[in-house]
């Protein structure tokens, strides 16, 4: 219980001190983590726990949608991607088809890895 409190405090501090780019990375990483946990619970037929992780993943995707800056054209493409993968998650909830969930997991993994690389390039000054 005490370790959990320390972990929560660490995460809170990490979020409060993160740059907008780092916050986006945290969202992608948490999305990936929740989706993998949902997959694990699906395999164990623990549907209540699975749905809790799916709900958390959907909340993250809605947060990502809400943070889009439409001053940049890429925001429209990101919105389309987020909406598509949200629809895939919703379809997964109905059909319980693991392939639907796996597609969303791969999306989250790919975006987390790409965003992490972009941040590293940006922070090293190579993006200029």
What does this structure look like?
This protein is mostly helical. It has a single domain (20-124), classed as Four Helix Bundle (Hemerythrin (Met), subunit A). 85% of the residues lie in helices and 0% in strands. It has helices at 2-17, 20-43, 47-66, 74-95, 98-124. The protein is globular, with a radius of gyration of 16 Å. The model has no long low-confidence stretch (mean pLDDT 90).
CATH arch. level architecture? Up-down Bundle
Within CATH, the superfamily carries the name: Flagellar protein FliS
> How many extended strands?
0
Number of domains: 1
Q: Determine the mean pLDDT.
A: 90
Shape: globular
CATH class label: Mainly Alpha
- CATH fold topology: Four Helix Bundle (Hemerythrin (Met), subunit A)
Largest sheet: none
* Weakly predicted, low-confidence segments: none
Order of helices and strands: HHHHH
Structural class: mainly alpha
Residues in helices, as a percent range: over 70%
Radius of gyration: 16 Å
Beta-strand percent range: under 5%
How far is the N terminus from the C terminus?
A: 46 Å
Separate helix tally: 5
């Amino acid at each position: 219980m005490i370790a959990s409190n320390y972990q929560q405090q660490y995460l809170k501090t990490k979020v409060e001190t993160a740059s907008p780019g780092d916050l986006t990375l945290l969202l992608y990483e948490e999305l990936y983590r929740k989706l993998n946990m949902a997959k694990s619970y699906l395999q164990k037929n623990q549907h209540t726990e699975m749905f809790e992780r799916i709900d958390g993943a959907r909340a993250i995707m809605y947060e990502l949608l809400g943070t889009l800056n439409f001053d940049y054209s890429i925001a429209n493409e990101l919105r389309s991607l987020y909406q598509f993968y949200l629809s895939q998650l919703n379809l997964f909830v109905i059909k319980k088809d693991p392939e639907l969930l796996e597609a969303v997991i791969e999306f989250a993994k790919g975006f987390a890895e790409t965003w992490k690389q972009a941040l590293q390039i940006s922070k090293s000054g190579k993006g200029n």
